[in-house]
Amino acid sequence: MPAEVKLECIGKMEFKERLSLRCTAKAERSLVDSQKIEFNKGRFWGNNRYLGLDLNNKYDVTKHLKDKTEALELMKYLKKVGVFKNLTISFGGPKCSLLAYQLRRSLHKVAQMRIDTNSKVGTTFQVSVSKNGSFAEFLEHFADRIVSKRDKRVRIRTNNPDRHILLERGLDNVVTTGYYIQFFRLIVISAKMKQSEYDGNFKEWLLKMDPDAYDKYFWENSFDNFDDFYDDDDEEFESWRHIWYDSDDAHEPHYY
Amino acid sequence: MAPKKNSAKRPQPSTPKPSAPARIVKVQSSDGHILQADVRALLLSSTLAATIKGYDDENKPLEKLEVNNVVGFTLKLVLEWCEKHKEDDPAIAQAEKDKKNIFIPSWDRHFLTKLPMGNLFDLITAAYHLDITGLINYGCKTVANSAKGKSTEEMRELFGIPEPWEQPSTSTATWDD
């Protein structure tokens, strides 16, 4: 079967079958990798011990950091081909500090992609980061597009007069600015949407990103044990950084 | 009565148009087999449609079309599929072209799944050469369905991919590049 025809077949395959096929031969892998694949939902997460991903609530992989090759390989592949309607990236734990700078940048990079591709209303991106500055950087980057600005929300114009982008910061009485990890949600909304229609239930989406977000004990202990967790050898996270956020890489993750 | 499940996904056939008398032409395969087909069926192939249009524009009589890259056995299958779908709205196939999940109507499911995998691959390849979007869609989805749940080894078998040590080396790059 000629490669072009095989490519058409791959386009009709599900994710798992594509994975099986790409392991058969180098030529097949390159064919599979040349095809984008759409997902309604994707979640990539990491903490001090594990790396994992979950696609469409159907396919999930969790690997211990010591046995991370498979998860990393998948991440690498998905970075090339994944087109996500809703993507959540959640890296809890102080060991993820190397990711922080790139993750902060990812907020306005994703927003810019949403603008450039005229993404549909409802398209969502969620990310948790473990450093300050994301909100401020976003404001600076889109200073000339800001429609409204509050302590938890910034709304910006897109190039489409019917659509705006809303960046929300996951903050409430429990999860405050004093926390090491910050939660953000970026949604494409209708330009007609009123402020009174905003979803005020931060807790719900925040818990989806990190089920421990409201566990006070967890937070207190995360801080107390910060130095214990921190490892001088950050090679593992360096490799994550290269996979997902290397700014020199032409293959950015794709979003609607 | 409750609407049928999946009815939203099912391609709706176009309203039958008042049928003109069938215009039958001969079609010759690469191995010399001569078959007959209704021009309306052949118009599903963009490649053949262009050739037919060329004849019509020049008012030349179209007696025989030569299909040089498809053998008789496969061409017969192509023509059978086209005959069945000659009333279809081409917009449906176009809309399904880049979709991963498409519905295969029962006639097509039966027609395609009864074929041995080698013949199915030949049929899809012929559809690709002749640019028949609907047949490519259904054929490829049938292959994708056959691949469902298969391991790497089973995929190798399905697509006839040699083991790594049997594959000719085309570059100095390693597998891990």
Automatic annotation (TrEMBL), chain A:
<dbReference type="InterPro" id="IPR001810">
    <property type="entry name" value="F-box_dom"/>
</dbReference>
<protein>
    <submittedName>
        <fullName>Protein CBG11659</fullName>
    </submittedName>
</protein>
<feature type="domain" description="F-box">
    <location>
        <begin position="1"/>
        <end position="41"/>
    </location>
</feature>
<dbReference type="InterPro" id="IPR042317">
    <property type="entry name" value="She-1-like"/>
</dbReference>
<dbReference type="Pfam" id="PF00646">
    <property type="entry name" value="F-box"/>
</dbReference>
UniProtKB/TrEMBL annotation, chain B:
<dbReference type="Pfam" id="PF03931">
    <property type="entry name" value="Skp1_POZ"/>
</dbReference>
<feature type="region of interest" description="Disordered">
    <location>
        <begin position="1"/>
        <end position="21"/>
    </location>
</feature>
<feature type="domain" description="SKP1 component POZ">
    <location>
        <begin position="24"/>
        <end position="86"/>
    </location>
</feature>
<dbReference type="InterPro" id="IPR016073">
    <property type="entry name" value="Skp1_comp_POZ"/>
</dbReference>
<keyword id="KW-0833">Ubl conjugation pathway</keyword>
<feature type="domain" description="SKP1 component dimerisation">
    <location>
        <begin position="134"/>
        <end position="163"/>
    </location>
</feature>
<dbReference type="InterPro" id="IPR011333">
    <property type="entry name" value="SKP1/BTB/POZ_sf"/>
</dbReference>
<dbReference type="GO" id="GO:0005634">
    <property type="term" value="C:nucleus"/>
</dbReference>
<dbReference type="GO" id="GO:0016567">
    <property type="term" value="P:protein ubiquitination"/>
</dbReference>
<dbReference type="Pfam" id="PF01466">
    <property type="entry name" value="Skp1"/>
</dbReference>
<comment type="pathway">
    <text>Protein modification; protein ubiquitination.</text>
</comment>
<dbReference type="GO" id="GO:0097602">
    <property type="term" value="F:cullin family protein binding"/>
</dbReference>
<protein>
    <recommendedName>
        <fullName>Skp1-related protein</fullName>
    </recommendedName>
</protein>
<dbReference type="GO" id="GO:0005737">
    <property type="term" value="C:cytoplasm"/>
</dbReference>
<comment type="similarity">
    <text>Belongs to the SKP1 family.</text>
</comment>
<dbReference type="InterPro" id="IPR001232">
    <property type="entry name" value="SKP1-like"/>
</dbReference>
<dbReference type="GO" id="GO:0031146">
    <property type="term" value="P:SCF-dependent proteasomal ubiquitin-dependent protein catabolic process"/>
</dbReference>
<dbReference type="InterPro" id="IPR016072">
    <property type="entry name" value="Skp1_comp_dimer"/>
</dbReference>
<dbReference type="InterPro" id="IPR036296">
    <property type="entry name" value="SKP1-like_dim_sf"/>
</dbReference>
<dbReference type="InterPro" id="IPR016897">
    <property type="entry name" value="SKP1"/>
</dbReference>
<comment type="function">
    <text>Probable essential component of SCF (SKP1-CUL1-F-box protein) E3 ubiquitin-protein ligase complexes, which mediate the ubiquitination and subsequent proteasomal degradation of target proteins. Regulates cell proliferation during embryonic and larval development.</text>
</comment>
